[in-house]
Amino acid sequence: MPMFRFTTAGESHGRALVAIVEGLPAGLPIDVELVNHELWRRQQGYGRGARMKIEQDRVEVLSGIRHGLTLGSPVALMIENKDWVNWQEVMATDATEIAPEKSRRVKRPRPGHADLAAGLKHDAHDLRDVLERASARETAARVACGAVAKQLLAQFEIEIRSHVIQLGGIPEKPLELNFAQIAAVPDEAPLRCGDAEAQQRMMELIDQTKSQGDTLGGIFEVVARGITPGLGSHTSWDSKLDGRLAQAVMSIHAVKAVGIGAGFEASSLPGSQVHDEISYDDDTRQFARGTNRAGGLEGGVTNGEEIRVRGYLKPISTLRRALRSVDIDTKQEEKAAFERSDITVVPAAGVIGEAMVALTLAAVMREKFGGDSLGEMKRNFEGYREQLHAY
User: Fold this and answer.
1) How many angstroms separate the CA atoms of 106 and 85, rounded?
2) What pLDDT, on the 0 to 100 scale, is given for residue 52?
3) pLDDT for 208-237, tens place per residue?
4) Cα four-point dihedral sign 274, 279, 284, 285
5) Domain spans of the chain?
6) Terminal-to-terminal C-alpha distance of the chain
7) Rounded average pLDDT over 240-269
């Protein structure tokens, strides 16, 4: 059984994004329309830019699925970039002579973007070589992979949702909602926020910020329920599940901090107000906790409570009111380059966060329960549940 993993390829204005998911068990039903729905969710949100009007993302399965079921081999997915028709000469893969005025060369790096740092690393004198891959367009491929992972997790009654709990400092205290309240937020909600009054204020702030040529960040929360105790490990630093989740969410473009459970707040409270006291339910024969400040993880291992992960998103780095920068040729001060951009992407980041959490949980589920087929994996899972009830 191969390790569960995924990888993506493709540039923002290239022909397509491609993703490969390895380690899925054979016999897993895959509904491609559920993948397409997740791609649609990623493109929604008040404050998105013109690119969302061009790209109507849909996935094409290239391999690994036959008659709706996984084969146990790598699953290859492709998402076509509709805008590529306007970039074929600029993004050509073969050696092509192109007039300087048509090259769309980028030489004024954007503060906060990968432009200059990765340009120095790769000795790139056209920063388009960097920004095309560093673009958040890549996350569409992650969401497609995550949608496949969600369908594996659903076989074990694991559900994942996200919501926006703060945007541009609104509300002053980030929202705290239970799973039912989060699940009740419709996908069509302008900012996928569970508080209508706060959402309206956020939208007004987005309009104001747009008129000023600026951008906004915020906080999203991803919640997973139905998680069995015992996923992850306490034995090695790199196998702790909280660390793996933090890396997965931190890897999302513009995320600058990650919190699990009480997160940052826990550092300022006494232990009596942080740790979740343990009880035992004789009827269900399960251990329980009256609170979940740990966010479902203790010592790098799931404890059976909901997993709660927050991503703290900085304002995106492409501003209409360009910040000061330097021309990499002349070394003279100039305004940073501007690419088509959004005002805020916090709701979309939540959907991407769902995908990254799903992919991480799918990996630890495969590690613990193995199985070359879905049936074998389920038998292993049921055997483990019997062990838990007998504890």
Assistant:
1) 20
2) 58
3) 999 999 999 999 999 999 999 999 999 999
4) positive
5) 5-390
6) 29
7) 96
